[in-house]
Amino acid sequence: MSTPSQKKRRSKGKDGAVAPVGLRLNRLGRASPREAAGKPVYLAVEHDDDQEVPAHSIVELGGGGGEAHLVLHNVRGMSFATVESRYGPRIVGVGGKLFTTVYDPKTSMEIPGPFLVEPKLRPVLIPRGSKLYALSRTPSVVPGLDFLPWFVYLDLNYVLVAPHDARTMGWHHLPPPPIFPVRLNPLEYRDPPEVRVASYAVVGSHILLSVQQDKGTCAFDMDTNQWDMVDANNLPFIGKAVPLGGHLFIARSIANGGAAAVYDIRVFPLQPTSSGSHKTELSILNIPVVSKGIVPGQLFCSLGKGIFSSIDVRSAATPGPDAKLHKARKKNDHVKV
């Protein structure tokens, strides 16, 4: 691991959590209650310093962890997701430039993946089985960063055909969301709108998506590869809704200034309408939560059985070679409705 310079710097988690750069890690808290024992949680962090090598680290929280696993690529602006494969779970990093990296948490080995057609900056990553969907977070109509194709997927079962070769098959194109700038007139192309993903969730076989503009909510059916508008209103939360089991999700409420909230989210595919056609419908209910207190302002991770963990990563104030990642507070909480 490289030695930090005397300049103070911090690292950012994928959803905005702040963590310091350092040479070593203090022992991190284990997951509890007993149902969560033995399940490690991995946190991907990006280092702020442009000269820091590597650009990202993968930190194991709980499960006897505390060790930092370093990602080899010196590329900033990547996103990470855990994806199943015939070889077991892998942590896949995508973006920054054209890169894809596939990391095995058991062996700490990393292999290169297939290149993207166009570079994506911190794309939205959605795993489903052995497939990983990548969506441009800020779609652009100008060739270069986040240009078309805006929506692609990769199947790890057809990528990891050999332990050290992940370039056999590449990314596949998918239709873009209807709320992206897919149809612009010549005047709009001269001054294209700035579109940015605001919130999303995965409900069954559907990806729900809203952007910062009030364009409503669309849904992508991963079984049929089709988009459909499901609500005239945007999703009521910020960022990603983390599944808790069943139809329950935890996310940060827009109405409550980003405070944690639990939602019952259901998608009813292809319901008949009065005109005789069929339309996908969406139902979202805000569920009261009985809690002893949630660590605010950081990351959520589902542990199953209605249990979630909120992670608070402290920043380091000590510069120089003795800088370290301070102990991350992990609070496990039950959802009771």
UniProtKB/TrEMBL annotation:
PANTHER family per UniProt: EXPRESSED PROTEIN (PTHR33085:SF127), OS12G0113100 PROTEIN-RELATED (PTHR33085)
Region (Disordered): 1-20, 317-337
Source organism, top-level taxon: Eukaryota
Compositional bias per record (Basic residues), positions renumbered to this chain: 1-12, 326-337
Name recorded for this polypeptide: Uncharacterized protein
Organism: Oryza rufipogon
InterPro entries in alphabetical order: DUF1668_ORYSA
